[in-house]
């Protein structure tokens, strides 16, 4: 199955992510599929290598989910990697891909998590539409 | 699972270099990274042990235009070859659109080649595919070592599936065969996607 | 017993088989593993030495008869030069040094 993304999809996804950035004050947000490919991205990517970020977060998330199963959990909902200046928050979206957020001292993890939950709900139908059309 | 982004005018595909430990998968990517002549700045990511053995994966994104205005992005990954890393191998293989199977031509490694190829088939099966569902090529590496297994014998071990796939002899440390393999698998994957899209 | 195992990439024979069947030339190359029971004792044969004595036509005869060529490979030929990564003659390190 190949994923096909049209202009309309891109516009919808970008609008949702822009809303997320405004609400959460995160630095950037992107949607990545399980294989590490970027569906869309919004925000300040200055000094950040985008493709490695996508590949590594997909790989990292995949291994934390495998870890969850090893300790008898179904999944870890939302994973945070905390740095001194910048942190990353990753959560699953629509059973399909990941919402990857990079944030700094302009906001808090609590705010990011809260906004991410709402955002995931909005992203769900759009991504589901892309997948069903791609079949 | 390829991504066809009509909005951005690009297709993105995932190609995985598979094979037993130390067969030359990472060496292939290192050579491509070093020698690729397109002007895009390509960063290679490697998650490896201190001894430079792949622990999780290597990742190298490359791209080229297919038709004017339409880009093809190839995300090259390698898997860790050692037997104990099967779980992570499976994670990296997830969503692969094409595979390069890098076999070690030394006589003593033929058993490992066979086991790794069987492992590839098992891991594809977990994703719901058979080996015939995915474009792949066979790279018989280390042809420079004294006393390598004959190509006909390696074909007998590895190229006996329903469909006979292209095979390439290589010396990855010197770059011999590396770009032939890369171009072949990239073209096969693009051909498959164009065919899927036309349906 | 040997030909059956060719597709495994390695060959294991019981000592029993060796004393009864195998030509003495092969026996000379064998190194022993631990064990007392001749029926269970397994000896690893260096694959290279076996294969050098097997003619290529025998291998060819064992390849599947009705194998088709991969259709993606033939379709890829049509794409040809539209997807090509070129190998530069200068490597990146030299390029970067020159640019500095």
Helix fraction of chain A by DSSP (H/I, runs of at least 4): 40-55%
Number of strands of chain A: 6
Beta-strand percentage of chain B? 25-35%
Strand content of chain A: 15-25%
- CATH architecture title of chain B: 3-Layer(aba) Sandwich
> Whole-number average pLDDT of chain A?
91
Q: In the CATH hierarchy, what is the superfamily of chain A?
A: Dynein light chain 2a, cytoplasmic
Radius of gyration of chain A: 14 Å
Structural class of chain A: alpha+beta
* CA(first)-CA(last) distance of chain B: 16 Å
Give the biggest beta sheet of chain B.
Answer: 8 strands, mixed
End-to-end separation of chain A: 6 Å
- Class computed from helices, strands and strand pairing of chain B: alpha/beta
**Structurally, how many domains make up the residues of chain B?**
1
Mean pLDDT of chain B: 91
What report would you give on this structure?
The complex is a heterotrimer of chains A (135), B (199) and C (100). Chain A contains three helices and six strands; from the N terminus they run βαββαβββα. With 135 residues, chain A is α+β, with helices and mostly antiparallel strands. Chain A has a single domain (7-134), classed as Dynein light chain 2a, cytoplasmic (Beta-Lactamase), CATH 3.30.450.30. A five-stranded antiparallel β-sheet of chain A has the order 3-2-6-5-4, sandwiched between helices. The longest helix of chain A has 26 residues, at 109-134. The N and C termini of chain A lie close together (6 Å). Chain B has 199 residues and is of the alpha/beta class. Chain B has one domain (3-198): 3-Layer(aba) Sandwich (Rossmann fold). Chain B is 33% helix and 29% strand. The model of chain B has no long low-confidence stretch (mean pLDDT 91). Chain C has a domain at 2-66. Helix content of chain C is 43%, strand content 12%. Chain C is built from seven helices and four strands, in the order αβααββααβαα. A three-stranded antiparallel β-sheet of chain C has the order 1-3-2. The longest helix of chain C is centred in the C-terminal third of the chain and has 9 residues, at 71-79. The mean pLDDT of chain C is 71. Chains in contact: A-B, B-C. Strand 1 (3-5) of chain A pairs parallel with strand 1 (3-5) of chain B, so a sheet runs across the interface.
């Amino acid at each position: 199955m190949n994923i096909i993304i049209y202009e309309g999809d891109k516009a919808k996804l970008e609008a949702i992510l822009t809303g997320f950035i405004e609400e959460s004050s995160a630095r950037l947000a992107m949607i990545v599929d399980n294989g590490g490919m970027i569906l869309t991205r919004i925000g300040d990517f200055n000094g950040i290598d985008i493709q490695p970020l996508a590949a590594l977060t997909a790989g990292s998330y995949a291994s934390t989910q495998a870890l969850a199963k090893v300790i008898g959990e179904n999944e870890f909902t939302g994973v945070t990697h905390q740095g001194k200046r910048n942190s990353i928050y990753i959560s699953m979206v629509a059973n399909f891909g990941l919402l990857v957020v990079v944030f700094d001292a302009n906001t808090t993890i609590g705010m990011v998590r809260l906004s991410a939950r709402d955002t995931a709900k909005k992203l769900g139908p759009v991504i589901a539409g892309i997948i069903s059309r791609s079949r | 699972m390829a991504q066809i982004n009509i909005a951005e005018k690009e297709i993105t595909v995932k190609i995985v270099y598979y094979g037993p430990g130390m067969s030359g998968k990472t060496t292939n990517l290192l050579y491509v990274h070093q020698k690729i002549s397109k002007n895009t700045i390509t960063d290679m990511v490697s998650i490896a042990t201190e001894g430079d053995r792949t622990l999780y994966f290597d990742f190298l994104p490359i791209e080229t235009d297919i038709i004017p205005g339409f880009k093809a992005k190839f995300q090259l990954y390698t898997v860790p070859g050692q037997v104990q890393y099967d779980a992570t191998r499976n994670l990296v293989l997830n969503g692969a659109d094409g595979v390069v199977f890098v076999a070690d031509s030394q006589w003593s490694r033929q058993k490992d080649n066979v086991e790794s190829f069987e492992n590839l088939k098992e891991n594809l099966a977990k994703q719901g595919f058979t080996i015939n569902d995915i474009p792949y090529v066979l790279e018989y590496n280390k042809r420079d070592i004294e006393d390598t297994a004959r190509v006909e014998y390696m074909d007998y071990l590895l190229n006996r599936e329903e469909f006979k796939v292209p095979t390439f002899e290589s010396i990855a440390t010197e770059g011999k065969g590396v770009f032939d393999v890369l171009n072949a698998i990239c073209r096969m994957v693009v051909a498959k996607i164009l065919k899927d899209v036309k349906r | 017993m040997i030909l059956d195992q060719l597709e495994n990439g390695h060959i294991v024979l019981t000592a029993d088989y060796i004393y009864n069947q195998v030509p003495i030339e092969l026996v000379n190359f064998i190194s022993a593993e631990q064990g007392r029971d001749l029926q269970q004792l397994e000896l690893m044969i260096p694959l290279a030495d076996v294969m050098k004595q097997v003619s290529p036509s025998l291998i060819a005869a064992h390849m599947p008869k009705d194998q088709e060529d991969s259709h993606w490979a033939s379709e890829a030929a049509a794409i040809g030069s539209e997807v090509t990564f070129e190998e530069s003659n200068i490597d990146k390190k030299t390029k970067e040094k020159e640019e500095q």
